Amino acid sequence: MDTEKKSGRRLNKAVAAAGFCSRRKADALIFAGCVRVNGELEQNPGRTVFPEDAVRVDGHAPRGPKKFVYVLLNKPAGVVSTVRDPQGRRTVVDCLPEHLRTCGLYPVGRLDYFSEGLLMLTNDGDLTYRLTHPSWHQKKKYEIVVRGPVDADVLRAMRTGMTLSEGDKLLPVAVKAATDKTGNTILALTLRQGINRQIRRMCRDLNLTILRLKRVSQGILTLGDLPPGHARILSPGEIDRLMDSFRNDIPRSDSHIRARDQKPETCMRPVRHRG
User: Fold this and answer.
1) Residue of 83, 113, 114, 183 with fewest CB within 10 Å of its CB?
2) 126 and 243 housed in the same domain
């Protein structure tokens, strides 16, 4: 805290840490003229602000220091990875128990509408920014089912790296193949890039029809036996390992509460599975 008093922090970090939004969205709010500092319009996300500065977003003051919540969801297919959907479709927040829906959680990254599996949600804007930044190449593991057999040359193309029809150059993908009892192929894929809809676009270019796509792990987080449509709070050990996995890249502020210091609150109650 003493360091922050002396050197301050960037405005976009201050807005995100106050719980208004993620750090990336904080930039958009600032550019859009929604943020004022000491009553003056401020459109520079990099401006340094100090604890004594009055920051307002659309006229609202920060809610003050808060405790961060980290949730792992097994997203089912047919759910959108957003907080709200203008088309009225079910969102990932709708999958959460009632007591977690008021914590200001938003998804870290996304899974498309027809995909399922591991998705993290948090109200820690700085962590979200770091986890979704292209420079942090966390491994993501998927299990997909495609129709019929898969030729060896298709697997070779994935393993050696391919170029998508749009021109995106892909790193080699680790892949294991097995045949299920219906004659379809189960592929276990490990990706190291953040290319949008990478697996679906790879399969499209390789003439593979996806029947199911499920993310089973992301970085140090694993889905385990969590049922579809259910969520759980990350354990203190998982939070520590998540922070440790890229600690050197993240400037931690005093507003980030270590797992061992967290005390149960309304938003931190155990998740009860709904039948």
Assistant:
1) 183
2) yes
